[in-house]
Design goal:
Number of helices: 13
Structural class: alpha+beta
Bound molecules: zinc ion
Shape: globular
Helix content: 25-40%
Distance between the termini: 18 Å
Number of strands: 6
CATH topology of the largest domain: Muramoyl-pentapeptide Carboxypeptidase, domain 2
Strand content: 5-15%
Number of domains: 2
CATH architecture of the largest domain: 2-Layer Sandwich
CATH class of the largest domain: Alpha Beta
Radius of gyration: 23 Å
Length: about 350
């Protein structure tokens, strides 16, 4: 279920006749409301105004109330969700062909034991994890990959943070070793996970450091602009996120170093060969982190491999990604890749 460009897909250019056919097809997003409005116009003889109805705001978000969606900001609220479109008299699964206003055969409504994760693909592995109640956040608004306050927030070259200058309100400094002059700042939940992870690595003789952590929108403006000035926009886009598109702005991402391996491989592909790089590749998921940009998945994530960049998603998600042998968050969500900016 492609999320990107869904709004455009909902309003293709088409003939007035095609518009009418579309208005009366059901189920579709907002089908109930639009069909009622369209029918009212026909019976009042005001069919000529149909294009106005098409372009008027349709109260889909209000009609499709899903936990985890933020009215007006969640693309998922406008998606043709089987849950959201079920009327009170929804047939039970298995009653085929009964859910159609026109009498045409309709697909059976799949059963869910929990609401879907908003914004993720209907068939993404994360839906199965959360439907089973494993590790789903207690706060339903966090079941939305577009909520910047959720550990599940998806940020890539197709998914801009909203608001673009978002800043977390619970940044803290974990008690771990710094590998740079930068202050270490991450969100509270990630901070405690970092402390446990670094302690576990240290117990095995691996001394991980934090080279970079939270970066504000304003900082990312400076970082990205610096890359563009020195390398050009194309090269900058392959190594640095544009402001508003960086996981570092969420307070859930860190770049790490190895205190014992020197600095040669800092921010370099060879970091994967350092003891710290190898340790996090094997163990970070146990602490809720994933190595976000891995080799072989560049066209999905939009970035060259960064074996030093860790993203906090929560242990239930990262261990489930491992279980399914899924190496990118995009794939885990069942969403298209984000090879470049829109
Ligand atoms: Zn990073």
């Amino acid at each position: 279920m492609p999320v990107v460009g869904f709004h455009q897909a909902r309003r293709p250019r088409q003939t007035p006749a095609a518009k009418l056919r579309r208005e009366f097809s059901w189920p579709r997003p907002g089908g109930i409301a639009v069909s009622i409005a369209g029918a009212s116009l026909i019976f009042s003889g005001a069919l000529v105004l149909a294009p106005v109805v098409e372009s008027a705001p349709v109260p889909v978000a209000a009609a499709v109330s899903q936990p985890g969606t933020t009215p007006g900001t969640s693309l998922a609220a406008t998606e043709p969700s089987p849950v959201g479109q079920e009327p009170a008299s929804t047939p039970t699964p298995g009653e085929k062909g009964t859910f159609s206003a026109s009498g045409n055969s309709a697909a059976p409504i799949p059963a869910r034991t929990a609401p879907p994760v908003a914004g993720a693909g209907a068939d993404g592995p994360i839906q199965g994890l959360f439907a089973a109640g494993n590790g789903s956040p207690s706060d339903a608004t966090l079941w939305d990959i577009q909520n910047p306050n959720s550990p599940l927030v998806l940020v890539n070259k197709q998914h801009l943070l909203a608001p673009v200058d978002y800043a977390p309100t619970d940044l803290v400094t974990p008690a771990v070793r710094s590998g740079s002059g930068e202050p270490i700042l991450v969100r509270a939940e990630a901070a405690s996970a970092i402390e446990r992870m670094f302690a576990a690595a240290a117990a095995e003789g691996i001394n991980i450091t934090v080279k970079s952590s939270y970066r504000s929108f304003q900082t990312q403006v400076a970082v990205y602009s610096g890359y563009v000035a020195s390398k050009g926009e194309s090269a900058a886009d392959s190594t640095s996120a544009r402001p508003g598109y960086s996981e570092h702005q969420t307070g859930l991402a860190i770049d790490i170093g190895d205190a014992d391996a020197g600095t040669t491989c800092d921010f370099n592909p060879c970091f994967a060969t350092t003891p710290a790089g190898q340790w996090v590749a094997a163990n970070a998921s146990e602490y809720g982190f994933t190595v976000r940009y891995v080799a072989g998945h560049e066209t999905t994530t939009g970035y060259l491999a960064e074996p030093w960049h860790l993203r906090y998603l929560g242990r239930s998600v990262t261990t489930d990604m491992n279980k399914h042998n899924i190496r990118s968050y995009e794939d885990y969500l069942g969403l298209p890749g984000a090879p470049g900016y829109k």
